[in-house]
Amino acid sequence: MSAPQSDNPKQICENILIEGKRYNIEHRILPSENAVANRLLARGIELTEAYDELHGKLHAHPHALQVFLGLVLSTAAFWSPEKIAQARAARGALGNVNQQIARRAAELADLLQQRSDLHNTSGFSTDTHYHVCDVIEAAAKSNYLFTSYVQERLDALHGQFDLKYWPSLSDFLQELASDAEDAVMEATDPLTAAATMASRPSRADFIKALLAAIDENRGRNHGQLPNDFKATDNTLASFASCALDLGVEDLVDGPYVKRLRQRGRDGAK
């Protein structure tokens, strides 16, 4: 992504945003990032000092300025307070689903054991699955890769070892119950972890996600931001306020970001 030449840091940064918007529009992609770019362009006066700082620190590093601005756009687009609230809700839903699986799998394990006992003692039986291999084969019968490459080998093992060598269906379900019961919730990426770390939502979530995105894009992580690059508290505050389109009463300031960073350092010790 190239931008017209200029000696003015604010104009250079805004040219990058404008060029990025143009590219996205031409390719019909990332309308949510374009919306954030529009906010930054509309509130450019508030970002003048931030642009001066960024240009001074990053202009000598190829693509670093574009990368940083891109991180602001993507973080605000995909880790806005609304999106973070959705992520927190999804985390709660996942925990609830695991608990339901644990409970119902344990109940089903008990029922399967009862059925096995009745088959052995009641004088009656049903033509239901009793071997774990039978269940696997029936469940995978429409899977071409399984039937083509796995089924023959599984059949050979099935025939080679009798029932006592395999887990019962009840054992199988009990393991699923234990697995769900003991599941540890973990974010799948650093941005999700940073944005949802706190138990309650706040403006800090976006800043945490942006700081995580910056770290992920440093040279040591094969990114294009210098390892020693650090945006000041005031610059991060300005970008947060403008990218999230916060009103006068809700603006983020430098001391707020400073306290947030200090709590992060204290928590890492």
Which outline best applies? Answer: elongated
Portion of residues in helices? 55-70%
Sheet with the most strands, sense and barrel status: none
Number of domains: 2
Total count of helical runs of at least 4 residues:
12
The whole-angstrom Rg is 28 Å
Q: What is the CA–CA distance across the termini?
A: 39 Å
Q: What is the mean pLDDT?
A: 92
Question: Which labels suit this protein?
Answer:
269 residues; mainly alpha; 2 domains; 12 helices; 0% strand
Question: What's the quick description here?
Answer:
By secondary structure, the protein is an all-alpha fold.
Q: What does this molecule look like?
A:
- With 269 residues, this protein is an all-alpha fold.
- The chain folds into two domains: 9-83 and 187-267, no CATH class; 132-165, no CATH class.
- It is built from twelve helices and no strands.
- Helix 2 (31-42) crosses helix 4 (64-78) and helix 3 (48-58) crosses helix 11 (233-243).
- The longest helix has 41 residues, at 81-121.
- The radius of gyration is 28 Å and the shape is elongated.
- The protein starts with 8 loop residues before the first helix and ends with a helix.
- The mean pLDDT is 92.
